[in-house]
Design a protein that fits this description.
Layout: H1 10-19, H2 23-30, H3 50-59, E1 62-68, E2 72-73, E3 81-82, H4 86-98, E4 102-110, E5 116-124, E6 127-130, E7 134-136, E8 147-156
Antiparallel strand pairs: 1-8, 2-3, 4-5, 4-8, 5-6, 6-7
Length: 157
Amino acid sequence: MILEPQTWSCLPQSVATAMAIPFKTLIEKIGHDGSEFVYKDRTFRRGFHIQECIDVATELGIALVPIELHYALTPNGLETYVIGSKESQGRRFKDYLDATSHGFFEGMSLDKRCHSIGHAAAWVHGMVVDPRGVEYNFEDRAAHNFSINKFWRVLWI
């Protein structure tokens, strides 16, 4: 088992940082390192699912609470009804960030070939802590090629 951070492990890296536990501890509790090739074309590694992180967090007495940046209702999966305005949703999202010392983001980034890929980064004391080795303000996320769609608030219970 690989117990050091890898390019495919931004989610558990971010979750471990947000929960203030060692990355190695989270990987050991999940039970795999995400490196296995499980898809038929062998171009994608197993990686990690958020539910694996939620299960470990719950075991440790931590709640991971999802906060969506922009949310909507859909009666049929095709049409959407946005609740409020994007501006009001953005303010609500920022209010959660301002009230939270630890959490992590899920979203999209671009790989070296400019293909969209899932990405995650931690939120610690008002700064985005990106597993790519940089820290930046939330407002600077576009300059760091990170489009956020969800924030997971870490609550010790």
